[in-house]
Every structure is written in structure tokens, then in C-alpha cells.
Amino acid sequence: MGNDIDRAGVAKAYARWAPIYDLVFGKVFDSGRRSTIAVADAIGGRVLDVGVGTGLSLSDYSRTTRLCGVDISEPMLRRAQERVRTLQLSNVDMLGVMDAKNLAFADGFFDAVVAQYVITAVPDPEATLDDFVRVLKPGGELILVNHIGAESGPRKLFELAFSPIARRLGWRPEFPWERLSNWAARHGGVTLAERRPMPPLGHFSLIRFRKS
Ligand SMILES: C[S@@+](CC[C@H](N)C(=O)[O-])C[C@H]1O[C@@H](n2cnc3c(N)ncnc32)[C@H](O)[C@@H]1O
Predict the structure, then answer these.
(1) Radius of gyration over every alpha carbon of the chain, rounded to an integer in angstroms
(2) Which of 22, 72, 129, 147 for mutating ligand 1's site (highest number of atoms within 8 Å of CB)?
(3) Domain assignments of the chain as residue spans, ordered by start
(4) 7-211 is classed in which CATH architecture?
(5) Distance between CA 34 and CA 142 in Å, rounded?
(6) What is this structure's pTM?
(7) What separation in Å is there between the alpha carbon of 30 and the centre of ligand 1?
(8) What does the pLDDT look like over 27-36, one tens digit per residue?
(9) What is the torsional sign of CA 117, 122, 128, 132?
(10) Which GO terms describe its molecular function (predicted)?
(11) Which of 2, 39, 180, 193 has the fewest C-beta atoms under 10 angstroms from its C-beta?
């Protein structure tokens, strides 16, 4: 698959979503968010939340976990900044506009990298995952929660039909599991630690890769 999603288009789409994002996606994505954060908190230390959006996840992390959050959309991040201020989240060290594929952090800086509902929205998921691993310490974890496309059946047909509309939102509903497993095999420096179906109906998955 090529670069069928363009970054500027995604940033524009999220600028429009920003004012209503929490209302529409707050609850839908909540269970996945909480499970991801539980894993990240158990690791602790320094955590990077990529595609942090409006910062819905930020207050769920333990106050002892040090957080950095990045996103391509400034309007989404502005909301996250408001949240940090209002809720006095003193464990958030920085929030900044950054492309997930070109993270401005040193190699091995983080104990965990979290990406919630992001990896299918970036133009080049494999190169983006490479950069996530680069900023992880050896033994650190990459924790993803995302929709993974159905392998067969009616859900797969629906996802294919829905795909042109979803693409305008920067989503790829048909995103197959093989894309992640092939990436991990090619990368060679990560092992799959967990793949857990998430509600509703296993439509989403929590996926953990550990850096060797
Ligand atoms: C579906 S939202 C998820 C937001 C948040 N993680 C949550 O759980 O509510 C996807 C987020 O990824 C961000 N995003 C999309 N492409 C990105 C990129 N290339 N680099 C950084 N962030 C990106 C969007 O701006 C948006 O905030």
C-alpha cells in the first residue's frame, strides 16, 4: 500500500473535529484508552503519547508517570493544553506539534510509547512505527490501540464499502493485522508481547510490542 493518506489533509480534518471531538469520540474510545494507560502506568517512568489529540487520556495516567504528548493538529493540542491547565496535570512535561514519523526526541528516551487510534491515520505506518521504536529504551514497550480490519465475513465487506469516506477522516477501516506483523518481522528489533481484542465486539485491539 502506498501513501494513500496525506498528512496535511488529516491535520485539516482534525482542525474541524477539534471542537466536537470529545463529544463524538470520548465514550466510544474510552475502554481502549483506559486499558492502554493501565499497561503504560505499570511500566511507568517516561511515556510518550503520540496523537494525543484533545488530551482525553492525560488525566487517566498515574500522576507518577511523566508524560510527553505530541500531535499533528494544533487545534486538537490547544484543547489538550487547556485540559492540562484546568486539571493541573503537573506530570505532563510537554505537549507539542510534531509528526509521528519524525519525533524530535533522542533515541531510547522513553520507557513506553502509546498511540491510541493513530497508527491507521498516518501516511506511512511502518516508518512511523520505526520512529516509535527508535525513541524507546531497550526493553521498553510500544502500546497501540486501534481498529484492525476484519479478515473475512460481513464486517470486512462493510469496511471496504466504508473505506472511501473513512479515508477523508484519515482512517483506513480495512487496515489488516498483517501490516503490523510484517512490519515487526522486517524490523527485527521488537517482539509481540500481546494482542488483546477490545470492546465493542473485538472491533478494536490493544497491541503491545517490546523492544529487544
Ligand atoms: C482518532 S484521533 C485519537 C486522539 C487520541 N489519541 C484519543 O484517543 O482520543 C487521531 C489523532 O492522531 C493525530 N494524528 C494524525 N496523524 C498524525 C501524525 N502524522 N502525527 C501526529 N499525530 C497525528 C490527529 O491529529 C488526531 O488527534
Answers:
(1) 16
(2) 72
(3) 7-211
(4) 3-Layer(aba) Sandwich (3.40)
(5) 15
(6) 0.92
(7) 15
(8) 878 889 999 9
(9) negative
(10) S-adenosylmethionine-dependent methyltransferase activity
(11) 2
